[in-house]
Amino acid sequence: MSDMQNGRRSVMLVLGGTLLGSLLYIFSLSMQNQILLTVDYLIALFLYICSFLASYQQFKKSSQYIFLYIMVMIVIIAVICTYSFFMSL
Questions:
Q1: Please, what is the end-to-end C-alpha distance for the chain in angstroms?
Q2: What is the number of other CB atoms lying within 10 angstroms of the CB of residue 80?
Q3: Which of 35, 44, 70, 89 could be bridged to 25 by S-S, CB 3.0 to 4.6 A?
Q4: pLDDT score recorded for residue 13
Q5: Distance between CA atoms of 56 and 14, rounded to whole angstroms?
Q6: What is the full per-residue pLDDT of the chain (89 aa) written as tens digits?
Q7: pLDDT at 32
Q8: φ/ψ of residue 7, rounded to 5
Q9: 8-45 in b/e burial notation, b at 16+ Cβ within 10 A?
């Protein structure tokens, strides 16, 4: 597999993990159940951390700035989810 295809695959996996965490958390916000909200928040946060670490590893390996942008985006999304989680308690 070429380096360019590996980079594209990594971007897709990182963004997929971030999207999955966001959709799971948005779904739990609409359910109005505190236990489900807490569990889904923790799962979403775990997915954000894994996506951030995968993006960081790819940035160290290839030094492409798209991974740095994705890391910043993941941090912003995690902060927004944390804020909404604490405001919904």
A1: 47
A2: 12
A3: 44
A4: 94
A5: 10
A6: 677 888 899 999 999 999 999 999 999 999 989 999 999 999 999 999 999 999 999 999 988 999 999 999 999 999 999 999 999 98
A7: 86
A8: -65, -40
A9: eebbeebeebbeebbebbeebbeeeeeeebeebbeebb
Rounded to two decimals, what is the model's pTM? 0.92
25's CB contacts (< 8 A; 6+ apart) are 40, 41, 44, 81
Distance CA 52, CA 27 (A): 22
Count of other CB atoms within 10 angstroms of residue 82: 14
Q: What is the pLDDT of residue 2?
A: 79
Tokens standing for 69? 């942008």
